[in-house]
# Entry
Amino acid sequence: MTAQIIPVAVFDLVVFGATGDLSFRKLMPALYWRESDQQMPEGSRIVGVARTQMSTADYVAQVEAACRRHVGDGFDEAVFARFARRITYVPLDVASREHWAALAEALAGGEDRPRLFYLATSPDLFGPISEGAGAAGIVTPEARVVLEKPIGRDLASAIRINDQVGRVFNESQVYRIDHYLGKESVQNLLALRFANSLFEAVWNRAHVDHVQITVAETVGIEERAAYYDKSGALRDMVQNHILQLLCLVAMEPPTSMTADSVRDEKLKVLRSLRMVADGDALQKSVRGQYRAGAGAGMAVPGYVEELGSPSRTETFVAIKAEVDNWRWAGTPFYLRTGKRLPTRVSEIVIQFHKVPHSIFPPGVGLVEPNRLIIRLQPDDGIQLELMAKDPGPGGMRLRNAPLDIRFADAFKVRYPDAYERLLMDVVRGNATLFMRRDEVEAAWRWVEPILQAWGTSEEPPKPYLAGSWGPTAAIALIERDGRTWFEEAH
# Structure
């Protein structure tokens, strides 16, 4: 079985920050795969832009090394030769008119085609780059700008960046990317909910006891120390990835799959989130920081040892969130993310209520509530836990029997990376999987009181051993409500 490849129009893609980690680790390998699948039409161009002075040949050599490393066994010399012919490199200092003129020259002749500006840079450059592109006259009616997260570090900076970009690009031209929304399993969540009448009837407070969303990483800060220590887990993961997953779980059915219909419903969820502020924030949120421990079978240092200086930045967050609307009132959403946890996993757990009355006599086994587990990584799939009779003539004995769909096994296709799908969506002008300005700002409005409460508290992040599931306070957060974190599958 092969995945269906949908052609796109001839386009130009300009990658700002073309020598950075994101470009080499994600963007260029994603574009290579689109070349391999023959999805990029003849005549499409890729322009790498960065401050480093080098020739196109030197840049292509760096792209080739990155593709060989990240594509692995799928690397093909002939495919890369085709891909390399599309690439041009333009050194650019945002403050230099001459450099902008060189970029305009590289883009000449493509005024009528989709022109994508991908800003794989720090957020403080989003405004200056947008303004520079506008002043250089290269923002065409078919231009689109892609903004990487984070959009600012708080509400005020997010508004400022959005204002700066908005002076050059219309909102319909702005694509705020969250690569989690490009994952196959995240889109399957939409299919699961809205293409199956079986689930929508029970997708509410009357049948769902609670929801857990976990994004766990085994790695530490690696090469991201400078960025991460200024950000922390709440800004880095919760404000964007995890809140977007919460929206997809909690949203009402949109009228259609058009971009604004979907984003309107997500926005309603963000606006329905109960504020977690002041003393409430310290009761309903936990921040932690890993200490030296064991990871991947070896001893690993703590966060401050890796950083090389004292820090109160959190590497773990757990939050009890509540959606105040008719569908979800009284149904908590437990959010959890952290670094140096025991396993790399991203999943959503829908825990249904217990049966109201068990007709089975004692001794047949515990009647456990049904549970729907949506795995986002590493093994994308859906698992539904049901109670069933244990086979055999020994009388009635009950056991938990999972119905398990692993997408890679079920569909036998190479799963495109999220960036492959999202880049092609920008070319098509499909903004469904991208965040709108009001979504970003609504997410910051909910997160900011938690940040402020932590900032005014004298209590430092709670320590946890690397290789554990976080501080004991995170366990207490959910167990106070008579519930437990789902970890059995790991």
Summary: The radius of gyration is 24 Å. DSSP finds 16 helices and 17 strands in the chain. The mean pLDDT is 92. The longest helix spans residues 225-250.
